[in-house]
# Entry
Amino acid sequence: MHVRTLILGAGVTGLSTAFHLEHQGDTDYLLIEQDAVPGGLCKSEQREGFTFDQSGHLLHLHDPYALQTFKELLGSNLRRLQRRAVIYTQGVQIPFPFQAHLGYLPPTLRKECLEQAQKAPHIPHPATFKEWCLASFGEGIYTHFLRPYNTKLWGTDPAEMTAEWCSQFIPRPKLQQMQAEAREQKGLGYNAYFYYPLKGGCQALTDALASRVKNLRLNASVTRVDLTARTAWINNEPISFKRLVSTIALPKLLEMTRQPALQSLASRLHCTGINVLNIAAKKPFNAFHWAYFPDEKDPFFRVGVQSSFSPYLAPEGNSSFYIELPSHCPPTPQTQKLVLSRLAQKGIIEEKDVLFSFWQKIPFAYVVYRPQRTPAVAQAQTLLKENGVYLAGRYGRWEYSFIERGFLQGKETAGVLTKDLV
# Structure
């Protein structure tokens, strides 16, 4: 079998690439997906009237084209929400982001954070995430929130990460905002508002995209990619291609090529996995959309309330939660007991409220920006493009990203492929 374009991975980016190729009149492609349903990590699971995503998958839509397309795809099955996010730390609950709500902290801690913010060092070109935090907020905010929370999230000390990713994702309020009394400041950050399907979870979006893609093959695993022969083995069947679009995890693709120069780059790319505990509860809960937990005593770093995104995600009078833990916290009954104990202390949920629970393991969750990441990705992109391979998406380009960007990269890639035919 031969196709002009072979697309690996039917997550949002792979589906978007095929969707836009179709719009451009190019139907000589094949989109393959290893799972039985499309969506990648943007899949949803139905259990006993509850809908669970694979941890939090929200639509942060800022680009007019993406917003318009998603509205066309989902129609009335799309709602816009204003973020309600909080932080539990030092025995108090404060609104997110931490650095804009110091007035909610105990007086001694607030004073420390403000004094250190005023003394923040001038670092013109921060080399590490730690330096960026110190230059932006000072030692206090870094010590009490940014360092412990991000160490949990990334599984890496901020001093060992670069700062190239963070300016878009971490709000930087002005000093006078940081000095404000206990008053919630809305609108800060790229996720101040978000969209979410009313019914079906995040998979409603990927299902809508998939319904407009003709050449999709499911239960199809790629095991090897021969760049010289421009051939991929899909379920042990050779499929030749003119060009290949990869949205799968970049280290996996590099290993599949069996080329030493590319395989050596894979060892320079790092990520952290997470374990997600999903809980269906027999009580309503709508105090927040999600919450952050920097304190060491809490094994989880974030808790989301899935049912708060839409009333159709849980039966009336019930609620659903996803609890995100670092991969070193094992998915065991003992871990669940500890999680519920810590959540009960905060008045969120108790063990007696649990109807059922289950675990999800996400091995590729967050790409870690160690110093070797960017040069390795750039070198991989150059070598692969010489052989007709294009990278797209959060895991294809090995970056920290969100759904809208993956969708737009699919559009961008389809445009490049179409121009390549002229």
